[in-house]
Structure formats: C-alpha cells, structure tokens
Amino acid sequence: MFPELNSILNTTPESFTQGEFILVSDRQSDASFLIHHFLSLYLRARCKVWFLGLVQSLNHYSAVSQRLGVSLAQAKEKGQLVFLEGLKESLSVLIPQETNTGSQAMDFLRDPAVGLKSLYEFVRSGVSSSGGREEETDGAEEWGPPVLLVDDISVLLSLGVSVGAVLDFSHYCRATVCSQLKVEVCWRRRQGDGQYTQKKLFQYKVHDKGASFFARGTSSAVL
Amino acid sequence: MLTELLQGTDAGGFLIIQDTASCSGRHLLKSFINAVLNREEAVHVLGFEVSEEELKDGLKGSPIQRLHFHNAYTDPLGWTDHPAFTVHQFCLVELAHLVKQTSHPKPPTLVIDSLSWILRHLSPPAVCKTLQQLRKGGAVRAIIGLLHADMHQRGTVGSVCHLATSVITVVPGIRGDEAVARITKRSKSGKVMQDEEVFSIKEDLKVIVQGKPSQLGPKQTDPEEQETDPTANLTFNLRLSDTEREAKQKLALPFVFSKEKKTALLHSGPGSGRILYEPDANDDYDQEDPDDDLDV
User: What is the pTM for the complete model shown?
Assistant: First the structure.
C-alpha cells in the first residue's frame, strides 16, 4: 500500500469506512497500481479479501504484492485471501474436460448474453458463508470485515457481456456486500455523499516500490 | 416555478427529475419526498437504486411514518429465491396492490427511484403504458420519477418525458453547492411553461431558489476546492511583499498607450525637430477635380 495515498484518502489499515463502493477507472493510462494498493491495504488491515482476478494471474499479483511487503501465498494459506483466477478458470470453460472441478463462476464465457448471475453466485456464496459472523467453529483465525475486489470490469465488456449485465452485477455485489454485510467492495472514484462529490486532483508517478502523489504542476521534473 | 412544484402537483400529475452523471438528481428527489411528507400525505417509494437506509438517511426529521419503502434494491431481478419486489412486477395490477396494502384516506404519491432501472429491463412502450395507466387509474395521486438521461437513448428519454406533466432537468451550477433546474411544465389546458432557476438544497432538504442563471455573476472561486499553493516549498522566492506589489502596480508598461505618452507626443519638447511646411502647388491635389479645370 502507498502511505501517501492513504493520507490523501484518509484511510489506514486500522481505520477505513465500511460499506463503501470504490470505483477505480482509467483512461489512456494504467490504474492497476491502485488495485495493488487496495489489495495490500486490506490484507494488512486483516480483512478477509475476495479477489476476482480476471486480467492477470495470481503470480502477477503475488510478485507485485511481495514488493509492497505482503505475501499473497501466505494469505491464501491462512484463508484470508480467496482468489478467483479468472484466466485459469476460463480454460475449463473453453477447453472442457471430464474432470471438471472448476466453479461455475466463469460460465458466462459460454454465452455472454446470459449475464453474470453465476459470477454473482460465486461471490454471494463465498462472502455470506463466512462474512459477518464473529465465531469461527474450527479454530481458524478470525478476520475483519470482508472486502470484494474485482480487476477488472471492463474485461467483461470485452468478453461480450452487455453493459446492462455488468451494471446489474455491480448492483447486486453492492447490495449484497455493502448493505447486507456492511463490507466493502472495491472495483477498478469515490462514491460521493449527497449531491456534490468532493473532487481532489493529483498527479502521480509510479515507482518500483510505490507511487508518489503531488499537486498538479509541482512534480520535481517540472520545478 | 420550482417552489410551486414542490408545493404540490395536481392529481394525476407526473413529475420527472432528469439528471446526468455530472449532477445527481437524487437530492432534489429527497426534497420532493420531504415536501410531500410535510403536507401530511403518504409516499410509496419503489427503491431500485439505493437501499432503504440510504434513502431515509437524508430524511431525518421528516414524518417518515408516512413513507413506505418497497425494497426492490436487494433483488430486483429475482436472482435469489425470495425477492421482495422485482422489476418484472412493474405493472398496474401489482403496483395498485402494493399501494393499497397501507391504508390512508388520500391516495398516496408514488416515487420511483429510478425509472432508469426499469427502462433498462423492460421495454419503453410497456413502461409508458404502465405509467399512463397509473396516472389515470386513481390508485396514486401523483408520480415522481428519477430518470438518468445519459443512460438511455434520446428517443426513450423523450418518450417517457412526453408523458410527464412536469420535467425538471438538473445540471451543475457555477458554484459547487448549487445546481440549475430547467423546468418544463404542461398545464391541463395544454399550455407549456418553461423556466430556468438556480437552486441549492439545505441540510433539512429545503430547496432555496437563488434566481435565474444569468443574474448571478461570473464564475466565483469555489471555497471548497483546496488548491495547493505552488509558491510553497521552493528553494527560491516567488512571493511579493506589500511594497513590491505596490511598485508593480505603479509600473507603466512600455507599449501601453497611456494619456501621459499621448500628450508627450503631441506637444514636442524643446530642442526636438520641427517640421516646416510651405504649401506647394503640386501638393494641392483635389480628388474630385484632378485636372483642376472644373468651374466649381
């Protein structure tokens, strides 16, 4: 996680608003560094994280998280991180085999017109089975509020899913995860309160181990 | 005209609040709900887009016992086993049944949040038919709907707005806490009135109309916007002291033609060159009489 971004957004691993829906969007540039930030932030905050990784493999996120000081393999082992490897799962759909143990989450690849109900089912069954309850019967570690991260939604559009279906999917995720379970959903803008959203504008530069943020026009390259 | 609309629509009225991604109309919708509740009338809300908590959050202090929220937020498409209200139940029969469930002497106002959700899943003609039937049916006194104009094709937006008796389009205002409402109202006689007003909404959901957009001055700096000072944290000084600022303002720029320069040029000082001219016959050239032979 990037400490500068934390101070801009007023979040720390110890305190962040629950029930939020964060949308990260980019145009003509790559905002994936923000996904890595949020992933490491919530893992450090000891939240239970569900990650729908549709564009990169688990190894990719592991490698980047390693540099940010978080081990995804460990988190997975401990049960803190549930990772849907979209790329791997899609193989089981595209190349059907008899010993098919994959979940039905990526079934929309068979027929994109059907919509994302099966993907939502994956999220719902995972999140509601362990989220929101304080006691863990098998002595496993207790985790904080669940977080759903999706990287990223636009690839669903490229795969033939309609915009309406994607909107419905995000609506259902928000309704289930944010309202019923009071947890967080983090996609790839801050959702504003009331009529007027507060906008803050920054420029950023991504480094090997982090990103630095500064006000417009004040980067060291300019001054 | 906004205040008039807030005070009450006539029976059978259909108000649409049209908004876009750049300016949300939900706050204004809440103000309308607040106004209806304060008139001691019942309100039924079909909530697709926001949860009951979120909608009632802004309505603190209003008599919300008369507000009946129908939850179409958790499962609007019937993906779970027990949906409360799905989008496919948006038809006259179901809605009339829904509204009759709560008893109240006067027919309630139906608020739809939002029409866009319904239009995304049902065909526009079906939606228009239901809306028209609701208006004429008498089950509800008035309908207020929120419509996101940038989510649909213009034809769809136009068709639905054609059914409405009033349409309020909200666009962002010049200042951060204000918005502009473009209002079109159709009276029963067929007369169409249009108006444009700047408004802002207070904490208690009261709408304050500031006036017409042209009346307010040019762009005022937004006090909420925090701009970092670019002259801070530098190794050199970019700021001006008061004396320096004064001197800067007094400075006459070299190529500005001021009054002093004009007089200096017109009245040449001592020792500067003078031009002596004696009229010459050849210089006496009359444009209208070049050969100088006309008897004028």
Answer: 0.72
